[in-house]
């Protein structure tokens, strides 16, 4: 039931029960307040909604005491709808992602991998009509909590996209951009950040004599490593990667895969990939998505040699999508 449709309902009881089915993030709770003000609800109905607002706020703001320090994310009963609830893209996802490991998200096209990945740093939040329900904890804090402003979340959980997308500025400025925009102006500090980030992204040796060159003039593989350096410059905990090698040739791909393998000593990595060979080469754990459901999750070797689920088996044997 979409939010607009709820407004159109005639029966107040229907309104309240429909609203109760929708669990919205804290930003959207204002909508509940408007409902209470606008509609002729009786006392009990108002109490129901007010309690809902209160409970959801408490849920979002509570620190998860039992958060396992070996995890980077704990995801609980996460559902997501696009188009004001008309299209459900994720169904009751429950999963724990481990610290300093590479987790691969695999599955046929349109099964929700990117949607899930983008939610880990709330990249999807700008999409009109997005509704989420359930909880995603990063180091014990709900990512929709007031304690985790979205900009802070995105510095902790960085993102590398499918198509390398350096800014049209120098290599140096690309990497310094994030730290600068967070207020670091000291040239010596910036130099250190830029050099180390480029080193960690396995690009420094190739570009050290031309840091003034435009980032967009590098080769595709170098541009992607520059984008990784740009994320590293923010010193994140997690790097999300959405098919980072699908636009690259095999040699550039091999370099990025080698890099991913190295990076996990410092960061946790969550990677969407269409390539099952890549998932097996670089990941420790694999999550298999199918039609918005997380069908199977486990050690990569287990998923690819002894999958428990028949659909997983069909997918890894190449029998679908
Ligand atoms: P995958 O990454 O596995 O290819 P996606 O997460 O991109 O899958 O998409 C999951 C489902 O959500 C698909 O059916 C897709 O069409 C739908 N979807 C993705 N983005 C939007 C959007 N902005 N609005 C509506 N539907 C969307």
Radius of gyration from the alpha-carbon trace, in angstroms: 22 Å
What percentage of amino acids are in beta strands? Answer: 15-25%
How would you state the average pLDDT, rounded?
Answer: 90
> How far do the termini sit from each other?
30 Å
Number of distinct beta strands: 10
Largest sheet properties: 6 strands, mixed
Which small compounds were modeled alongside the protein? adenosine-5'-diphosphate
Q: Helix and strand string, N-terminal first? A: HHHHEEEHEEHEHHHHEHEHEEHH
Computed structural class:
alpha/beta
Q: What percent of the residues sit in helical stretches (DSSP H or I)?
A: 40-55%
Describe the global form: globular
For the largest sheet, list the strands in their spatial order.
6-7-8-3-9-10
Count of DSSP helices?
14
Low-confidence stretches: 23-27
Summarize the model shown.
With 321 residues, this protein is an alpha/beta fold. It has helices at residues 3-8, 12-21, 29-38, 43-61, 113-119, 150-156, 171-181, 187-200, 204-207, 220-232, 250-263, 276-282, 300-305, 310-316, and strands at residues 71-82, 87-98, 102-106, 131-138, 141-142, 157-160, 238-242, 268-272, 285-290, 293-299.
């Amino acid at each position: 039931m979409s939010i607009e449709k709820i407004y159109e309902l005639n029966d107040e009881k229907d309104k309240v029960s429909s609203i109760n089915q929708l669990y919205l993030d804290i930003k959207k709770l204002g909508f509940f307040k408007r409902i209470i003000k606008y509609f002729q609800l009786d006392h009990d109905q108002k109490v129901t909604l007010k309690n809902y607002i209160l409970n959801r706020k408490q849920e979002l703001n509570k620190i998860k005491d039992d958060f396992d320090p070996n995890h980077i994310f704990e995801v609980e009963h996460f559902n997501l709808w696009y188009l004001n609830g008309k299209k459900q893209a994720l169904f009751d996802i429950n999963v724990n992602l481990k610290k300093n490991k590479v987790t691969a998200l695999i599955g046929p096209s349109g099964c929700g991998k990117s949607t899930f990945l983008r939610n880990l740093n709330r990249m999807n939040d700008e999409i009109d009509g997005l509704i989420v329900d359930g909880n995603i904890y990063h180091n014990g804090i709900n990512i929709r909590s007031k304690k985790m402003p979205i900009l802070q979340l995105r510095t902790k959980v960085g993102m590398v996209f499918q198509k390398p997308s350096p800014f049209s500025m120098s290599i140096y400025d690309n990497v310094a951009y994030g730290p600068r925009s967070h207020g670091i102006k000291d040239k010596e500090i910036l130099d250190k950040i830029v050099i180390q980030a480029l080193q960690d992204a396995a690009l420094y040796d190739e570009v050290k004599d031309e840091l003034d060159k435009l980032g967009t003039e590098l080769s595709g593989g170098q541009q992607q490593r520059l984008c990784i350096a740009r994320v590293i410059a923010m010193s994140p905990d997690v790097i999300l990667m959405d098919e980072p090698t699908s636009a690259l040739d095999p040699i550039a791909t091999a370099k990025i895969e080698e890099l991913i393998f190295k990076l996990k000593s410092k960061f946790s990595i969550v990677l969407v990939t269409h390539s099952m060979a890549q998932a097996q080469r670089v990941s420790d754990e694999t999550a298999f998505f199918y039609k918005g459901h997380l069908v199977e999750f486990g050690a990569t070797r287990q998923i690819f040699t002894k999958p428990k689920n028949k659909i997983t088996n069909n997918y890894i044997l190449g029998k679908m999508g």
